[in-house]
């Protein structure tokens, strides 16, 4: 099958939007897995540097860089005027020898470009939003900084696609509230590279204190505030926060300074350590160094951090929402607490850190859960079946 994966952002090494880095990692793994299954896969992303080649082959699939907009990195809000041009370029491209049998849009801007490209054809469109503006606005409140056009455009996009792919049950419910029929929503969770994330291997250095690890960007809504306040109830343990800018830039980073001031006001400054950005290929060593991984974002559709931690055999304490609630089985692979309940978060962390046998059991169950239900092979297999279904639905029945 010929599959076109559309993401209107530039490549992951140059994007200016943090969330789209995870989106590109997701697309790359899906493309590679589909190629291994014998499909002809092409990924379309915006070309933001004239020095980059127009096409490149990687892991069995082809990446094509679309020359629309200025040849420079752009934030999402500034991509919107170029969506129609991006879609028109795809339309022209697909009138040649290579024409996709199914198109899969990623993130809302990529989905709009994909839907524009096939609007006068019989090519079906599958859409993965990766996050929804209406959900982010609800959970983040004033911390939500998405462009104003996003929410109405996402709602319009749901009416232009054949099927939407949700990454968690909360997202399924949200998409149906946006007007999609339940039969037009498929739940396909993200995958984990179990060859990279596993219990055996090196661990990052640490001291003798129990370690709680938090992974995520340094921005309001990522939940580090709650964890810092919860440390007052945890006792003698360290909280390591990985993410944000490189370590050498933390002193000048506004959110990093705010979090350090918060830790100081709560009397836990000596227990909180910010390490800055960690390359994704080094994250497994940090997960393995932790006794518990805390996942407390105010919004998370995929729950990627919780899954990577579980794959490394580390129990997770997380907020019972989004992808975290789907990934973590309460009292089996970790503990779930009500979102925003700082007291419950602190008490749960303290009790789990004191329960060596419980953490050992949770860690073993976590590894089994990821390997059974959250591998990239499983994710690609589910998408493959979904593509086959929408292609059959679009093809006319022969007499």
Topology of this structure?
Blueprint: E1 2-6, H1 18-36, E2 40-46, E3 55-58, E4 61-66, H2 83-93, E5 102-106, H3 107-117, E6 125-128, H4 133-140, H5 150-158, E7 163-166, H6 169-177, E8 185-187, E9 211-215, H7 224-234, E10 238-242, H8 254-265, E11 272-276, H9 283-288, E12 292-295, H10 304-311, E13 316-319, H11 322-327, E14 334-337, H12 342-353, H13 356-373, H14 376-394
Parallel strand pairs: 1-2, 1-5, 2-4, 5-6, 6-7, 7-8, 9-10, 9-12, 10-11, 12-13, 13-14
Antiparallel strand pairs: 3-4
Helix pairs in contact: 1-14, 2-3, 3-5, 7-12, 10-13
Radius of gyration: 21 Å
Helical content, roughly? 25-40%
Q: List the helices and strands in order.
A: EHEEEHEHEHHEHEEHEHEHEHEHEHHH
Looking at the overall shape, the CATH architecture of the largest domain is: 3-Layer(aba) Sandwich
Count of spatially separate domains = 2
Largest sheet: 8 strands, mixed
Strand order of the largest sheet: 3-4-2-1-5-6-7-8
User: In percent terms, what proportion of residues is strand?
Assistant: 15-25%
The CATH homologous superfamily of the largest domain: Glycogen Phosphorylase B
Which class do the helix and strand fractions yield? alpha/beta
Unreliable parts: 13-20
- Strands, count: 14
Question: Which fold name is given in CATH as the topology of the largest domain?
Answer: Rossmann fold
C-alpha end-to-end distance: 23 Å
**Count of alpha/pi helices:** 14
Can you identify the CATH class of the largest domain?
A: Alpha Beta
pLDDT averaged residue by residue: 92
| Overall shape | globular
């Amino acid at each position: 099958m010929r599959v076109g994966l559309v993401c209107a952002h530039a490549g992951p090494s140059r994007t200016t939007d943090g969330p789209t880095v995870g989106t590109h990692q997701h697309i790359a793994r899906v493309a590679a897995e589909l190629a291994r299954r014998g499909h002809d896969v092409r990924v379309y992303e915006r070309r933001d540097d004239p020095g980059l080649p127009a096409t490149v082959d990687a892991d069995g699939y082809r990446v094509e860089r679309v020359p629309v907009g200025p040849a420079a990195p752009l934030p999402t809000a500034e991509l919107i005027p170029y969506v129609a041009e991006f879609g028109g370029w795809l339309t022209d491209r697909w009138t040649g020898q290579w024409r996709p049998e199914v198109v899969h849009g990623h993130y809302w801007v990529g989905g709009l470009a994909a839907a524009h490209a096939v609007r006068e054809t019989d090519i079906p469109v599958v859409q993965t939003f990766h996050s929804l503006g209406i959900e982010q606005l609800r959970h983040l409140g004033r911390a939500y900084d998405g462009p104003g056009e996003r929410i109405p455009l996402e709602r319009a996009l749901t009416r232009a696609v054949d099927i939407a792919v949700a990454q968690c049950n909360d997202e399924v419910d949200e998409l149906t509230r946006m007007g999609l029929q339940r039969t037009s929503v498929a739940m396909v969770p993200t995958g984990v590279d179990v060859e990279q994330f596993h219990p055996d291997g090196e661990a990052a250095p640490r001291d003798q204190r129990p370690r709680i690890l938090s992974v995520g960007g340094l921005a309001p809504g990522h939940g580090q505030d709650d964890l810092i306040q919860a440390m007052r109830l945890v006792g003698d343990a360290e909280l390591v926060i990985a993410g944000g800018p490189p370590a050498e830039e933390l002193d000048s980073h506004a959110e990093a300074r705010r979090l350090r001031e918060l830790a100081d006001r709560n009397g836990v400054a000596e227990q909180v350590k910010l390490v800055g950005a960690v390359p994704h290929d080094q994250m497994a060593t940090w997960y393995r160094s932790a006794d518990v991984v805390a996942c407390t974002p105010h919004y998370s559709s995929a729950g990627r951090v919780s899954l990577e931690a579980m794959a490394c055999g580390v129990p997770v304490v997380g907020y019972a929402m989004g992808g975290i609630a789907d990934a973590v089985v309460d009292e089996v692979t970790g503990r779930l607490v009500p979102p925003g309940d700082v007291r419950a978060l602190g008490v749960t962390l303290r009790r789990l850190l004191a329960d060596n046998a419980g953490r050992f059991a949770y860690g073993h169950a976590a590894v089994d859960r990821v390997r059974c239900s959250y591998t990239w092979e499983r994710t690609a297999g589910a998408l493959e079946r979904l593509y086959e279904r929408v292609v059959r639905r679009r093809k006319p029945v022969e007499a």
